[in-house]
Amino acid sequence: MAAPPEKTLKNLAGKWVMNKTLSDDTDRILQMQGVGWFYRRAIALATITLTVTEYTKDDGVTHIDISQVATPGGITSVENRTLDWEYHDHTDKIFGKVKGKSRWVKLGDVDDDEFLKTGWDDVEGEHVQSYAESDGGGWTADQVWGFEILDGKRYYVRHVVVRKGDDWKLARLVYDYQK
């Protein structure tokens, strides 16, 4: 189901399921990130569900906590984003040791690839930027989150750019809202 109008980046709470028809293939990106064939195959065949909790602490910093489950297979990962643009360490069973930072950002302030800045429904408002560096894997991943109109419907979308050395891959990940 497309994202209802009340769902915004400041109100992402709920369940989101990756729409594999509208999303780009992630195999090349996962391979670049050192994810083995078995996990990549399982992810390709599975339904990916994000359960999102979003809150702002007393210090005014937004937190977006995401539990990600691939079913069948039960492959799980946790994405906890603190939107303060400071590095936070994380160990993930799929990606290993990673340090990442996240923030609210205007598209004009995104330094990098034009792919991260284009296609959005709201080009003036704030988006979420999430940047990660692998500890030992040699890759970086830069993401911008927002909403896009695709086939006349509004969806939660992530634009992802992964780099390793001189190589880079792009992907657009599209999610259906599931309450």
Q: How is the topology of this model organized?
A:
Layout: E1 14-18, H1 27-32, H2 37-45, E2 47-56, E3 62-71, E4 75-82, E5 88-92, E6 96-106, E7 126-134, E8 139-150, E9 153-164, E10 167-177
Question: Which key terms come to mind for this protein?
Answer:
single chain, 179 residues, mainly beta, 10-stranded antiparallel sheet
Structure description:
This protein has helices spanning 27-32, 37-45; strands at 14-18, 47-56, 62-71, 75-82, 88-92, 96-106, 126-134, 139-150, 153-164, 167-177. It has 179 residues and is mainly beta. A ten-stranded antiparallel beta sheet has the order 4-3-2-1-10-9-8-7-6-5. A hairpin with a 2-residue loop joins strand 9 (153-164) and strand 10. It is globular and about 40 Å long.
Q: What would a concise description of this structure say?
A:
The chain is mostly beta strands.
H/E series: EHHEEEEEEEEE
Structural class: mainly beta
Note the beta-strand portion. over 45%
Radius of gyration (Å): 15 Å
Largest sheet: 10 strands, antiparallel
Poorly predicted parts: none
Rounded to the nearest angstrom, the distance between the terminal CA atoms is 9 Å
Helix content: under 10%
Using the alpha-carbon principal axes, give the shape.
globular
Average pLDDT for all residues:
94
Our count of helices gives 2
The neighbouring-strand order within the major sheet is 4-3-2-1-10-9-8-7-6-5
What is the count of β-strands? 10
